[in-house]
Design brief:
The complex is a heterodimer of chains A (110) and B (115). With 110 residues, chain A is mostly beta strands. Chain A contains no helices and eleven strands. In chain A, strands 2, 4, 5, 9, 10 and 11 form a six-stranded mixed sheet that branches. A five-stranded antiparallel sheet of chain A has the order 1-3-8-7-6, with no helix packed on it. In chain A, strand 7 and strand 8 form a beta hairpin. Chain A starts with a strand and ends with a strand. By secondary structure, chain B is mainly β. Helices cover 0% and strands 54% of the residues of chain B. In chain B, the strands form three sheets. In chain B, strands 2, 4, 5, 6, 9, 12 and 13 form a seven-stranded mixed sheet that branches. In chain B, a hairpin with a 2-residue loop joins strand 5 and strand 6. The relative contact order of chain B is 0.33. The chains are: A mainly beta (110), B mainly beta (115). Chains A and B meet through strand 4, strand 5, strand 9 and strand 10 of A and strand 5, strand 9, strand 11 and strand 12 of B.
Chain lengths: 110, 115
């Protein structure tokens, strides 16, 4: 059974204080690892897809990296508008084989 | 494009009532799915469809029915609502490029309370 564990559950940062979110996974044949952002009361919004170990992707202050066992979402010099819950998901087979983690709730304080 | 739309945004039901959550997408995506999101549980797949006329069960299908008569629409029906179905429901759509699976586009969600 595929498993996804995200840590920490919650993270509070000062504006400008860089940090990383972790997504550890166990899957039988990774097809893709996805990062989403979810604001309160809204649906998840896609950020990145990573397909193989060693791959990296960047978008503004966010950078996602992937190894064979985990993925990191690095946040550089965060701003209050980066406050949200960040979800990690892995796909190991067909469309039905997508497993989500429980998310990391990030709060960036001005 | 409106993307993925869901109605209603909020709903309160009494135990035993039935209702249909509506979902539509205008991106011509072949894949559509329904998830429920509960505190501490993450998103869990209820049902999914890989095209019109084709549906299948996900991780937590009991108590729910789906149908897919068109590419655009994928309604979720609660047969006889129970308090355990109190949750936030998200509809999502996606597409496949060759052998690669792509990201899912989520709707804004329906917050359902069953009394």
């Amino acid at each position: 059974e595929d498993q996804v564990t995200q840590s920490p559950e919650a993270l509070r940062l000062q504006e400008g204080e860089s940090s990383s979110l972790n997504c550890s996974y166990t899957v039988s044949g990774l097809r893709g690892l996805f990062w989403y952002r979810q604001d309160p009361g809204k649906g998840p919004e896609f950020l990145f897809t990573l397909y193989s170990a060693g791959e990296e992707k960047e978008k503004e202050r966010l950078k996602a990296t992937l190894t064979k066992k985990e993925s990191f979402l690095h946040i550089t010099a965060p701003k209050p508008e980066d406050s949200a819950t960040y979800l990690c998901a892995v796909q190991s087979g067909g469309y039905q084989k997508v497993t989500f983690g429980t998310g990391t709730k990030l709060q960036v304080i001005p | 494009n409106a993307g993925v739309t869901q109605t209603p945004k909020f709903q309160v039901l009494k135990t035993g009532q039935s209702m249909t959550l509506q979902c539509a997408q205008d991106m011509n995506h072949e894949y559509m799915s329904w998830y429920r999101q509960d505190p501490g549980m993450g998103l869990r797949l209820i049902h999914y469809s890989v095209g019109a006329g084709i549906t299948d069960q996900g991780e937590v299908p009991n108590g729910y029915n789906v149908s897919r008569s068109t590419t655009e629409d994928f309604p979720l029906r609660l047969l006889s609502a129970a308090p355990s179905q109190t949750s936030v429901y998200f509809c999502a759509s996606s597409y496949r490029t060759g052998s690669s699976y792509n990201e899912q586009f989520f709707g804004p969600g329906t917050r359902l309370t069953v009394l």
